[in-house]
Design a protein that fits this description.
Layout: E1 6-9, H1 13-22, E2 25-27, E3 39-42, E4 60-63, E5 70-71, H2 75-84, E6 87-91, E7 94-98, E8 103-106, H3 118-130, H4 139-163, H5 183-191, E9 202-206, H6 210-219, E10 222-224, E11 229-233, E12 238-241, E13 246-248, E14 251-254, H7 258-265, E15 276-288, E16 297-299, E17 309-312, H8 313-316, E18 331-341, H9 348-364, E19 368-384, H10 392-402, E20 405-407, H11 409-412, H12 419-432
Parallel strand pairs: 1-2, 1-14, 2-10, 7-16, 14-20
Antiparallel strand pairs: 3-4, 5-9, 6-9, 7-8, 11-12, 12-13, 15-18, 15-19, 16-17, 17-18
Helix pairs in contact: 1-12, 3-4, 3-5
The structure holds flavin-adenine dinucleotide.
Length: 436
């Protein structure tokens, strides 16, 4: 029977929601709440990260994990977010950018085939209609089946190769809604305009930064910071922390990545773990180049330096720029994302070499001119995937549940979900454990 010693592990957005809904104490490795949903500030020509905007507002505003826009979500969750911090709403403005051809195709590409020229558009439409449908085993099979060889060769293949760090030919199909298939819209888009579609057509963002959302949630939680869990003894039911302290428990609500928790608990899952990818986020503040687009973000299938997405914080909102640049908009605040296979972290020197290559490439494209800030962050478990037919996730979750460890959130449950769904997840699990 469960007693009183129930803890939440991790004060990211999921753990905060669980802490708020349950009233239970939270253990967090970092000194601050929010996990990867955290903003920070850097003055031009400085390397120092500031956790709050300086009084004169002369700093670039970045996110630790690159642009974190709040998509979709349950209206109740959005109501909750609004009750803590005012938000602004935005209409997505994004495209695929083929640097080799200097060609922009609005997202989603399959609904804007007219931009690829009549020959490719006709062939792609024909293939979308005639490619036989079956039960694809891999992500590559699913994309080829939905879009046919022409679009796969042009965009979906090279993009997903970068985005999944080469895994796309070996992992199970996933998150199909990111590449929506609608043949009538594809047909319409081959000859004219189509309406915006997809999970991120509109989004909101807190007026004073994502930090405020996490900070306001944290004010209502009991958080023990600087408490990194290093081992969980499931037999004695004791948590071991990096500082040598221990805490007995009856049950745990864990938001930590599933693969790490199976290692910390020493639980044997009799099948190989599912793969994941890490992301290196480069935040850049620079003088705006003459060909800097106005998009919020671009999908990049052919960047020589290897990134798959470049986003423009300050195209979403000029408040991401130092105050003196907000009217002239002569600077730009950028995030660049590159995926790596889980477990293959680049060395410091490799990060430097890559950073230089990205800067040179963005300058060649004339997106940016002189650099004022460049600041990398490594997100170790960023995207979670599964091998075709794998039972690892289900088995691992079940073993942990049998030990009274309940995994929750994007990384805890090894699923793709954004901020709003993570909050909802935390509420549900937290509510189930509410202290009476
Ligand atoms: C590159 C990228 C871009 C994204 N963009 C968006 C977006 O635009 N919009 C959107 O809605 N979502 C986006 N997401 C998803 C979003 O970041 C997640 O849904 C959300 O942050 C998940 O929150 P979490 O609390 O579950 O995890 P996390 O934020 O990872 O929080 C986990 C917490 O646990 C702590 N922790 C870790 N290990 C230990 C330990 N051993 N002991 C104690 N504490 C520990 C960490 O410090 C952290 O605070 C993006 C994700 C990535 C990777």
């Amino acid at each position: 029977m469960l007693k009183n010693q129930i803890y939440i592990l991790g004060a990211g957005i999921t753990g905060l929601a669980a802490g708020l809904a349950s009233g239970l104490p939270v253990y967090e490795a970092a000194q601050t709440p929010g996990g990867i949903c955290s903003s920070y500030y850097v003055r031009p020509k400085s390397q120092e990260r500031l956790s709050i905007a300086p009084a004169d507002d002369e700093a670039y505003h970045f996110e630790l994990g690159g642009g974190h826009w709040i998509f979709g979500g349950d209206p109740v969750v959005l109501h909750f977010i609004r009750s803590l911090t005012p938000v602004k709403s935005y209409q997505r403005h994004s495209a695929v950018f083929f640097a080799g051809q200097n060609l922009y195709v609005p997202y989603p590409l399959q609904n804007h085939l007219g931009h690829l020229g009549p020959e490719i558009a006709t062939r792609a439409l024909d293939e979308m209609l005639t490619t036989p449908k079956g039960s694809p085993k891999t992500m590559a099979d699913a994309l080829r089946q939905d879009f046919g060889p022409t679009l796969t060769e042009h965009f979906f293949g090279p993009f997903h190769d970068l985005y999944t760090a080469g895994l796309w030919t070996r992992i199970a199909p996933q998150d199909g809604y990111k590449s929506p298939v609608n043949v009538s819209l594809a047909l319409q888009g081959a000859f004219g305009q189509t309406p915006p579609v997809g999970y991120n057509a509109t989004f909101v963002y807190p007026e004073v930064g994502l930090n405020t959302l996490a900070a306001r949630m944290a004010e209502k939680c009991h958080i023990n910071y600087n408490k990194q869990v290093v081992q969980i003894d499931v037999h004695r039911q004791v948590i071991h922390f990096a500082d040598g302290a221990t805490a007995p428990y009856d049950a745990l609500i864990s938001t930590l990545p599933l693969n790490k928790v199976t290692i910390m608990t020493g639980l044997e899952v009799s099948v190989p773990p599912d793969p994941y990818t890490s992301v290196l986020v480069l935040n850049i503040g620079a003088i705006r180049g003459p060909h800097c687009p106005t998009d919020h973000w671009l999908y990049n299938p052919d960047a020589q330096s290897g990134f798959h997405r470049v986003g423009f914080y300050s195209n979403v909102d000029v408040s991401f720029l130092p105050k003196s640049a907000r009217t002239s908009n002569d600077r730009v605040s950028i995030y660049v994302e590159r995926a790596y296979l889980g477990g293959e972290q680049p060395s410091e020197q490799e990060v430097k070499t890559y950073t230089q290559a990205v800067i040179e490439e963005l300058q060649t494209w004339q997106f940016i001119d002189e650099i004022e800030v460049v600041d990398p962050t490594w997100i170790d478990v960023a995207y979670t995937w599964s091998w075709p037919g794998s039972s690892w996730r289900v088995r691992a979750l079940k073993h942990l549940e049998e030990c009274n460890i309940f995994q929750v959130g994007r990384y805890g449950r090894w699923i793709f979900q954004g901020i709003a769904d993570s909050i909802k997840d935390g509420f549900v699990v937290g509510g189930a454990f509410k202290i009476s």
